[in-house]
Write a structure and sequence with these properties.
Number of helices: 10
Radius of gyration: 17 Å
Order of helices and strands: EHHEHEHEEHEEHEEEHHEHH
Largest sheet: 9 strands, mixed
Strand content: 15-25%
Structural class: alpha/beta
Number of domains: 1
Number of strands: 11
Shape: globular
CATH architecture: Alpha-Beta Complex
Length: 259
């Protein structure tokens, strides 16, 4: 069994170069780390090759889902990924100890889970929880989020003390059994950026009865940025386009109803 780790860089070469945990992970036996460079950076290429990582340059700028799909295909066709292996989405701004990631894989094996996430925090002191697990959103949830700054779809992580099934988890960290990712045909590339993680988790549940298993005892840091909240920025535009696409997929989502 091999763990394949996908790290997509959109100009994140500084974060990746400073991430010693990621570099230590790449040195582990049974782990293959693939850096997908969406913009093209010689420094990142040199870093990846010098740290036992695989380097892939995108032919042109692509979205989050398309880049991860390209990494998955590279792992399958060039690195010998098998259905029983694991495929991990690892944001450039994620700091996770290699042992924590390998414990997540072990938990997946022990529980026969095919889609997992862990407990993320926004600071290295682990005092500010990251809202990385949520219920499937309604239109009202998004409206409240933008107008009131609230997060009504987020689970209360403080109340979850043992492994639990949740609706969806942030693409900052998701662990897939390779066979499930293949069955889902990966991310829907019509989502350029944002909500592709919601969509793939919903499809996993609806099509294959695979909810996300959340492991609260395993922790990591997600140094996230809320670029989509900046009105009239390109990130805000991408978020709004993805939101429309998400809710147009079914009648229940048009109404903003949770199912």
């Amino acid at each position: 069994m091999t763990l394949f780790v996908s790290v997509v860089s959109h100009g994140h070469e500084v974060l990746i170069s400073q991430n010693k945990q990621l570099q230590a992970l790449a040195a582990r036996e049974g782990v293959e780390v693939v850096i997908r460079d969406n913009l093209g950076c010689t420094e990142l290429r040199n870093l990846a090759l010098g740290c036992s990582m695989h380097y892939l340059a995108a032919p042109s700028p692509m979205g989050f889902g398309a880049n991860n799909n390209a990494v998955f295909e590279f792992c399958r066709s060039k690195l010998g990924m098998q259905p029983g292996d694991y495929f991990c989405l690892h944001n450039p701004d994620l700091v996770i100890a290699p042992d924590v990631l390998l414990k997540t894989v072990n938990a997946a094996e022990q529980r026969a889970a095919r889609l997992l996430t862990i407990n993320l925090y926004q600071d290295r002191e682990l005092t500010r929880p990251d809202f990385n697990i949520k219920r499937f959103p309604s239109l009202m949830d998004f409206a409240r989020g933008f107008l009131l700054g609230s997060n009504p779809a987020a689970y209360d992580k403080a109340s979850i003390g043992k492994p639990a099934l949740v609706d969806w988890a942030s693409g900052a960290f998701l662990l897939f059994k390779a066979e499930l990712y293949q069955q889902l045909h990966g991310f829907d590339e019509r989502f350029f950026m944002y909500l592709e993680d919601v969509d793939i988790c919903r499809r996993a549940r609806d099509q294959f009865g695979e909810p996300v298993l959340y492991l609260p005892q395993l922790k990591a840091v997600h140094l996230c940025r809320q670029a989509n909240k900046r009105l009239f920025s390109r990130h805000f535009y991408w978020f709004m386009v993805s939101m429309v696409k998400y809710f147009l997929r079914s009648g229940s989502r048009k109404l903003g109803l949770r199912t």
